[in-house]
Amino acid sequence: MPNIKLSHVKKTFPNGFEVVKDFNMEITDGEFVVFLGPSGSGKSTVLRMVAGLEEPSGGEIRIDGKRLEEIPPKERSMAMLFQNYAVYPKLTVYENIGFGLRQRGVAEEVIDEKVRLIANLLEVADLLKKKPRSLTASQRQRVALARALIYDPQILVMDEPFANMEENVRPRISKRVAEIHAQMKGIVMLVTHNLPIGLRLADRVVMMKLGEVHQIGTPSEVYDQPASLFVADFIGDPK
Ligand code: ADP
Ligand code: MG
């Protein structure tokens, strides 16, 4: 069971901009952590650092006690979904979803079964033979989500996975993500602009603004006992 520990993690860009100032958090097995806050808060950057796409300028990130940079990428049981991680245009939806498993040499029958299962859950089962360019943005986003979820990773990092989805599919798909998480029992770190969905999915919420953490707590803690005016405003007046 994975454990992620971020200690005094900082990220400063070469122009001197401190996008993440001093991030401290321990995430334990099975936790679903949702990052909330206005854009420019550093949420994506925290996720990108955990995913190994961006190097911290200070502090350290440990997974199961080991420093992230000492774990070879192949040994990290991690799947990620970022806005700029587009689906492969030349592969069919079926091939896209099974891509990672195929890379890992998983048997074709197992891939087939898993692809169909996840495609059903994310409502793309009727699109398996299509190429991404003929899909809507919402459908493409669900294919990208399927591709990340199919691994059964111990750590799942997702930046705005519901962003391009239509209002009518979003609640269902987010519910499926919760169900998949309940089965995988790993860690999920997710950024979303959708406050109701974020609060519903989260075991804990991280409230960020301008590179600083204002509060880390359960949805009811941040709702009932906001640590700052910013948190209170962002979550909304309960009464
Ligand atoms: P969030 O996900 O909360 O919107 P980000 O982690 O994406 O925040 O951080 C965005 C901030 O970092 C923005 O203010 C952006 O201008 C700045 N930023 C991102 N990349 C760079 C870069 N390479 N150099 C300087 N500033 C950057
Ligand atoms: Mg972002």
Automatic annotation (TrEMBL):
Coiled coil: none
Domain ABC transporter: 4-235
Keywords: ATP-binding, Nucleotide-binding, Transport
One MF annotation (Gene Ontology) recorded for this entry: ATP binding
Protein's name in the database: ABC transporter ATP-binding protein
